[in-house]
Design brief:
CATH class: Mainly Beta
Number of domains: 1
Number of helices: 8
CATH topology: FAS1 domain
Oligomer: single chain
Distance between the termini: 122 Å
Structural class: alpha+beta
Strand order of the largest sheet: 2-1-6-5-4-3
Bound molecules: 2-acetamido-2-deoxy-beta-D-glucopyranose
Order of helices and strands: HHHHEHHEHEEEEH
CATH architecture: Roll
Length: 216
């Protein structure tokens, strides 16, 4: 009996050890915004922008922290949505404006479709303060239909691309351009400052000319 017990003990001891050796530790599953969108297959432009502005890295860092924060919601415009923009729109944006545009598509909270029904508008995005009225984003939902509006663009959520407890990605049919005070406003301000610069240059070359003229 003793022998049998000892044998049983040894058997289970080694069996246990062997099992522990065979069963690999489950790979740590880390969400990756780029691969989520790549699987979607129709977000090439948005992926490019996410990479160029380094928002992809920033989101992946957020997603890889072991302690889940409030989560992330991404409104991803499809390639079709980008081709709906006026030609040259993206190229006319500075790096800073591209960053703001991308951040405007990211909410610093995880929102499920049902949470859209009770969303408190305007929603906070990563582009910044809604209080200044610069980057307002409103969501209205009814049943399965979810609309997003910025005041200048009315978009519709076409599809839920991905969701888990950290990140939800929704496909939208339009690029969410912020109103004048946002990206476009910055473009206008840039043009004005360029004109002023040209004026100042004109003035300084006149001053140089005048100094030379006086010298003679
Ligand atoms: C995310 O996925 C892309 C390819 O899908 C890969 O190039 C990149 O290294 C991944 N990033 C992280 C942080 O895992
Ligand atoms: C969403 O927008 C469409 C028009 O694009 C409209 O017919 C529909 O009623 C809107 N739905 C909600 C919930 O706002
Ligand atoms: C967004 O919702 C807020 C609060 O309901 C409202 O004051 C604002 O006018 C809305 N903006 C747009 C662009 O729909
Ligand atoms: C967006 O929808 C609202 C009403 O739902 C409408 O008043 C507004 O004109 C629309 N804006 C654009 C740019 O289509």
């Amino acid at each position: 009996m003793r022998k049998l017990l000892a044998f049983a003990f040894l058997f289970f001891f080694f069996w246990d050890k062997t099992l522990a050796q065979i069963a690999p530790a489950p790979p740590l599953k880390v969400d990756n915004i780029t691969s989520i969108l790549e699987k979607g297959g129709q977000f090439t432009t948005f992926i490019k922008l996410l990479k160029a502005t380094q928002v992809a890295d920033q989101l992946n860092n957020q997603l890889s922290t072991p302690d889940p924060n409030d989560g992330i919601t991404v409104f991803a415009p499809s390639d079709n949505a980008f081709s709906g923009l006026k030609p040259g729109t993206l190229n006319s944006l500075s790096d800073q404006e591209k960053l703001q545009l991308v951040q405007f598509h990211v909410l610093p909270t995880l929102m499920s479709t049902s949470q859209f029904q009770t969303a408190s508008n305007p929603l906070r995005t990563q582009a910044g303060d809604v209080k200044g009225g610069k980057f307002p984003l409103n969501v209205t939902a009814e049943g399965n239909q979810v609309n997003v509006t910025t005041g200048v663009v009315n978009a519709t959520v076409e599809n839920s691309v991905f969701s888990d407890r950290r990140i939800a990605v929704y496909q939208v049919d339009k690029v969410l351009l912020p109103p004048k005070a946002g990206v476009k406003g910055a473009v206008v301000a840039g043009a004005v400052s360029l004109k002023f610069h040209a004026l100042a240059m004109g003035f300084s070359s006149f001053a140089v000319f005048w100094a030379i003229f006086r010298g003679f």
